[in-house]
């Protein structure tokens, strides 16, 4: 039920940004980043604007090429990417012990692919938190199409300032979402606040590994490309994330970099040298087709001016993620399960 056609891609481009303002929005977004003279402090102080611009511009491309769940996955040989993504989501639900009757929070839900899968898998009721209006409207549309209008709800809010009373939820999860936080400790503190005592929070985090060398120019270039291509204020290390979740008050039950046990590299979808019929649009041929499609759509004015620039930003992201993964300096699946003490 994802948007899969050329006209669907064109109609969604820019999200809630008016079509005649897409080009200027892309240029404003670029200026936040190192590659275009920006700096970390500007990204952190303007994180809400930066992240909203990013998802307004990128969401239609994500859905066109990736499907409804915008994240990577632990992989086994013989699995399609979509099968791996589903198992990745089921793995998280199992470790949280989700079951019918539980009230669960999805922090930074995208268009709701994971929450729909997790709701069907576990029977839990999921509240989806997102600060991007376009993604929420698309998520609500998909929930209705999937028949999940009653068991899931979307709330538009910043996860740094959640509109929920203390101790509201029976479980909380975040899938590659709190990497957008300007201050991860404050984000974890807010999650701690709305979680019931004795209950669990689980997350997949984007992190730098111990192999990252801040004095290495190539490593810094890769980091900057990932930040530009994915709307990130900064990228923390696995050690920083672990320390932050403990400083927020949580007890650590389990933590590991799931990338290390993945039989198939998590970054393989970014490798143009790979071919897959089930993920054709991620292959070199599929990406070339998308490039020409976007140029054509923009030329005939079915897609707004600036669309091709958005695609270039996402291609930069793919290159950074691929190189970061190959060099072992970046992981998209640092995983932890933590508990709020009684």
TrEMBL record:
PROSITE patterns: SAM_MT_ERG6_SMT (PS51685). It comes from the Eukaryota. GO terms for molecular function: sterol 24-C-methyltransferase activity. Pathway: Steroid biosynthesis; sterol biosynthesis. GO terms for biological process: methylation; sterol biosynthetic process. Residues 54-341 form the SAM-dependent methyltransferase Erg6/SMT-type domain. Its EC number is 2.1.1.-. Gene3D superfamilies: Vaccinia Virus protein VP39. Keywords: Lipid biosynthesis, Lipid metabolism, Methyltransferase, S-adenosyl-L-methionine, Steroid biosynthesis, Steroid metabolism, Sterol biosynthesis, Sterol metabolism, Transferase. Belongs to the class I-like SAM-binding methyltransferase superfamily. Erg6/SMT family. PANTHER family: HYPOTHETICAL LOC100005854, ZGC:194242. This is Methyltransferase.
